[in-house]
Design a protein that fits this description.
Layout lengths: L3 E5 L6 E6 L3 H18 L4 H17 L1 H12 L3 H10 L1 H15 L2 E4 L5 E8 L2 E5 L5 H14 L3 E5 L5 H13 L7 E3 L4 H7 L6 E5 L2 H11 L6 E4 L4 E5 L6 H13 L9 E7 L3 H13 L21 H14 L3 E4 L14 E4 L16 E7 L2 H8 L4 E2 L1 E5 L3 H8 L6 E4 L11 E2 L1 E2 L2 E2 L1 E2 L1 H6 L2 E8 L2
Parallel strand pairs: 5-6, 5-8, 6-7, 8-9, 10-11, 10-16, 11-14, 13-14, 16-17
Antiparallel strand pairs: 1-2, 3-4, 4-22, 9-20, 12-13, 15-19, 18-21
Helix pairs in contact: 2-5, 2-7, 3-4, 3-7, 5-6, 10-11
The structure holds NADPH dihydro-nicotinamide-adenine-dinucleotide phosphate.
Length: 458
């Protein structure tokens, strides 16, 4: 395990901070402390636990600008998008305010007769939250806030690329009244995450890549504790020939593909367009992407900043080379940008097909492939030609047509005339290589408890 973690600013490559990694001995101690603390926390009334989370939300809002600057400094996310994420994540807290009591309270199933039957929902215990760097507020809140409200304690491991933000979560949770034996933030890289898998914990909640998720599921399988995996995607968007406003469809599709530099689990990763509107759509799409301001992520009107991880530049270059070799037509970008930082020019290919890696493998960057289709059936076949199952979108003016297509998608989420969107009101779940289990919605509240059946004879 590395002794220190260097926090680099992706816009410059400069080291902004050096943090000491949590040692294995400290991790053992943390797990023991969290175990003891959890027993007390589970007895705290639900409303008091919720009040802590509401105060946490207020503190996050009150310190939004500073927190956004920290997020931008360590991930390169443009500052306006950092502010949006921090503001938007508050909807998880509102969801808990409105729904936690409903889904966590005791249920009386049979209230009369010789034998009464009830269900109580007990916390899992100590859970690990091993998280990703791309939307640390959203994906973090989906897990640790819901876990805490349900009476669990949390060992939180932010990605090494979002550690400063993870430390802010701990600071403000403590200030909000969450005891420090209920939430611990770990500093470390993948090896630290690996050690967490060996601790005697009661659940593993992971957000990250398919490769690491699969490894985690296999490693902890023998413990027979809940494992949830929120993994990647290769999310398709199909633009049918009946869209009324092709330019608007292109603008929305481009935003879905390039927001947060394409580093979203549910980013649009491949686009299929009906041959009848193909040329018009592609021209509007290229014009929109060409208008994006690329630059310093601290500047308010920057839309494309640096990639968070330098290593991703190679993934993008390889996909670009492969697409060119196989005959795709490059319309924009196609190269890293000279100078400091991990910048890649927003890149658009057309005339793509499924022999190309950029239509099959997760890209996770500012690069998109567009393919022409001649029918809904062809589009459906291509959309489903993937090992992933996170989201799928259709743009069409005909709701019935869109629903017929979306019903055939083997994905956790489908979108009609929208994309790249998460709401706390409905489950967030992936199928096959996109994951296991749900966060958000009633399912996401119940994910952090285990039911106990009571058979009572008064
Ligand atoms: P990784 O899988 O690389 O890492 C995720 C987390 O796992 C990090 O905290 C990482 O630590 C840790 N980790 C790495 N190796 C191990 C190990 N052997 N044991 C335990 N933990 C380990 O994913 P990324 O951070 O690169 O995140 C990007 C991926 O996440 C994309 O595929 C994206 O689609 C997906 N994602 C899915 C979401 C969803 O809701 N479905 C939401 C957001 C992202 P460290 O970073 O310190 O190495």
């Amino acid at each position: 395990m590395q002794e220190n973690i260097a926090i680099r600013n992706p816009a410059t490559g400069a080291v902004e901070a050096t943090l000491t990694s949590t040692t294995t001995i400290e991790l053992d101690v943390m797990a023991a402390i969290l175990k003891q603390g959890q027993r007390k926390w589970a007895k705290v009334p639900l409303q008091d636990r919720l009040n802590c989370i509401f105060r946490f939300g207020q503190l996050i809002s009150a310190n939004k600008q500073e927190l956004a600057e920290i997020l931008t400094k360590e991930t390169g996310k443009p500052i306006t998008q950092s502010l949006n994420e921090i503001g938007g994540a508050q909807n998880r807290i509102e969801h808990l305010r409105q729904n936690a009591a409903k889904w966590l309270s005791e249920e009386v199933i049979v209230g009369e007769g010789a034998t009464l039957e009830n269900i109580r929902y007990e916390p899992l215990g100590v859970i690990a939250n091993i998280s990703a760097w791309n939307f640390p507020y959203n994906v973090g809140f989906n897990v640790f806030l819901y876990a805490l409200v349900a009476g669990n304690s949390v060992l939180y491991k932010p990605s090494e690329f979002a550690t400063l933000t993870g430390q802010q979560f701990a600071k403000y949770l403590y200030q909000a009244g969450v005891p420090d034996d209920i939430f611990k933030c770990v500093v470390g890289d993948g090896e630290t995450g690996q050690y967490i898998l060996s601790l005697p914990l009661d659940g593993y909640f992971f957000t990250g890549s398919y490769k690491t998720g699969l490894h985690i599921a296999k490693t902890v399988a023998h413990k027979l504790v809940p494992v949830q995996l929120e993994l990647g995607g290769k999310d398709p968007l199909y633009v049918t020939d009946d869209v009324t406003d092709i330019e608007q469809a292109a603008v929305s599709a481009a935003e879905g593909a390039f927001y947060n530099n394409g580093q979203s689990c549910c980013a649009v990763e491949r686009i299929y367009v009906s041959e009848k509107i193909y040329d018009k759509f592609v021209e509007a799409f290229v014009a929109e992407v060409a208008s994006y301001k690329v630059g310093d992520p601290m500047t308010v009107d920057t839309f494309i900043g640096p990639l968070t991880r330098a290593a991703q530049l190679t993934v993008l270059s390889d996909q670009v080379k492969d697409a060119l070799e196989k005959g795709a037509r490059l319309r924009l970008g196609g190269h890293a940008l000279q100078g400091k930082g991990y910048y890649y020019a927003p890149t658009v290919f057309e005339h793509c097909d499924h022999s190309m890696a950029l239509m099959i493998d997760e890209t996770f960057g500012p690069l998109i492939g567009i393919q022409k289709v001649s029918s809904d059936e062809e589009a459906i076949g291509l959309m489903q030609d993937t090992a992933y199952g996170l989201t799928a979108a259709v743009f069409s003016s005909d709701r019935n047509r869109a629903m017929r297509i979306l019903d055939q998608m083997d994905t956790g989420t489908v979108y009609w005339n929208c994309c790249d969107r998460v709401s706390p009101n409905v489950p967030w779940s992936g199928r096959r290589n996109s994951g296991l289990g749900s966060t958000l919605s009633a399912q996401g509240i119940r994910a952090f408890v285990q039911p106990k059946a009571y058979h009572l004879r008064p």
